[in-house]
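Predict the structure of BTB/POZ domain-containing protein NPY3-like.
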Amino acid sequence: MKFMKLGSKPDSFQSDEDSIRYVATELATDVVVNVGDVKFYLHKFPLLSKSARLQKLIATTTTDEQSSDDEIRIPDIPGGPPAFEICAKFCYGMTVTLNAYNVVAVRCAAEYLEMYESIESGNLVYKIEVFLNSSVLRSWKDSIIVLQTTRSFYPWSEDVKIDVRCLESIALKAAIDPARVDWSYTYNRRKLLPPEINKNGGVPRDWWIEDLAELSIDLFKRVVSTIRRKGGVLPEFIGEALEVYAAKRIPGFMIQNDDGDDDVIGQRALLETLVSLLPREKQSVSCGFLTKLLKSSVSLECGEEERKELSRRIGEKLEEANVTDLLIRAPEGGETVYDIDIVETLIDQYVAQTQKGDELDCSEEDTNEGDGFVSDSSKANVAKLIDRYLAEISRIEPNLSPLKFISIAEKVSNFPRSSHDGVYRAIDMFLKQHPGITKSEKKSLSRLMVCRKLSPEACAHAVQNERLPLRVVVQILFFEQVRATCPTTKPSLPPSGSHGSSRTTTEEECDSVTATEETATTRDKTSSSEKTKAKGVVMSRIFSKLWTGKDRDGVGDVSSSDTSESPGSATTVGDKSTPSTRRRRSSS
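Done. Here is the predicted structure for BTB/POZ domain-containing protein NPY3-like.
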C-alpha cells in the first residue's frame, strides 16, 4: 500500500478523556473548535494561515458579544474528529501519514476547510492531489480501497471527483494487456490456463475479476458500466465477473430467507442489478449462470421484467442447458412443486428464435447462417433435453397434468430426432408415476410418440409394457414384424375400423417405413429368431386381451376409433368369435 508523510515536527496532540484534545505547548490556546462531541483546544495562528473557512468562522465568533470565548462549531465536517485532527496537525507542521484508507476523509475535510493554494502555497489540498495522482490511482488495490471509502463521504467525494477518477483508473487497468500487469492482485480461482500463458508464467486475462467482487453492488455496477463504456474488455470476461460476484454475494445461489425481510429485499435488489448488467452478446454468459439467476429470481419474487429478460436470454441458449437447470422450484403455495410454466416460457422463446431463424434463412438464400440461424443439431439437442426433462419432471412432480405434459412435448414435436426413444421413456415414466389418468389421456399421450422411430431396444420394452394402450403395442409389433421380414418393403396399415376423423399421429406415421430404419433392421437380423419368439408370446397376450374385451363388452377395442390393427389380427378375431357364439346359442 502506498503512503505519504507530511510535516516534520513531532506529534504533540494529547487527550483529556475521550472528548477533549489539545496541543501540549507552553503557549495558551486561544480558540476552541467543536467537532461533533470532541473539543479541540488550539491556537488561531497556525489554523488561520491555512484554512479560509476557519478564518471566516473565527472572524464571526470574535465579533459576537454574546460569546464568552472564541469557540466555533463545525459539526458537519466530512470525516469527523479524526479527519479534522489530521488537518489541524498539518497546520501545525506535525507529522501525519496519508494512505488509501484515510486519504478520502482528509481530502474531503481539507475541501470543507478550504485549504487551497490561494491561502498558502503547498497547502493540504494540493499535497493530497499529488499523492492521489502519483501514487494511489496508479495502484490497482489502492484504487479499489479508495473507491470503497468514497461511499462514506458522499457528496463531498463526488464533488472533488475522487470516485470518478478511481473508476477510470480501475477500468483502464482492467483493459490493459496482461503482459503489462506488474502490480499485485487477487486470483484464487486457479484455472487451467492456456499453454502459451502457462509456460511463460503470464497473467490470466481475467486477473481483475476477483478483486472487483469485493465491492458493494452499487460500486460494482459503476465499475462494470465504466469498463463497458471505456471498452477493451471482452463481453465474456464481463459475464464472468458477474458470475463470480453473484457466487460471492449469493453463495451457490441458494437464497436464505432466515435473516428477515430486509435481507431478502437487499438480495432482490442485488439480483436485479446483476440482470441489468448482463452483456447483450449471446456468448457472454453461460446458460448455467442464467438459469441460476432465474431460479433465484423466482425464489426472491423479483420483478416481471427481470424474469422476462432472463427467460429470453436462456431461450437463446437452451441447447446448452441440462435437466437440472430446468428444475426450478415454484413459490410456496402454488399448485405444483416445480415451476413448469416458466419452462414452457423458455421453450417458447427458443421456438420463436427458430422461427425467426427460418425466416432469415429463407430470405437469404446465399447464406447458411445468420444472427438468428438455428441449426438442426441445436434443435435436436433441445428435443433431447425436453424429453429428458419430461421424464424427470414426471418422476418428481406429483401434480403434473397430462395436458401440461402434452403441451410441453408438442412444442418440440417437429424438431429433428434420430429416434423417439426419449419420447417413449418420458411417456412411460408419466404413466408409471400417474397411474390414475383416464384411458383417453393415455391415448393422447401415446399420440406424441412415432412408433416407427423407436429403436429395437425400445420396441422390445414397449411391446411388453402393460401401461401402454393396446393399439400402440399392436402398431409397434406391426412395424417390428415388417422390418424384420420385409426390410425393403414400405409397410402401410389398413384403414382403421372407425371414423377417419379420429386418426391419431401414430396412425399417420404408419403409412411408410423410411430407408434409415431399413439399415437398423439389417443390423438386428442376427437375433431375429429370438425376437420373433418373444413377439409371438406378446401377440398371444394381446389377442387374449382383445378376445376378453369382446366377450365382456360385446364390442372389442379392435373396432374402436382408437385401435390400429393388421389384417391378420382382424381376421383371426372374427374367425374365433363366430363358432363360440354358435356353441353358446346351441347349448341354451
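The chain is about 55% helix and 5% strand.
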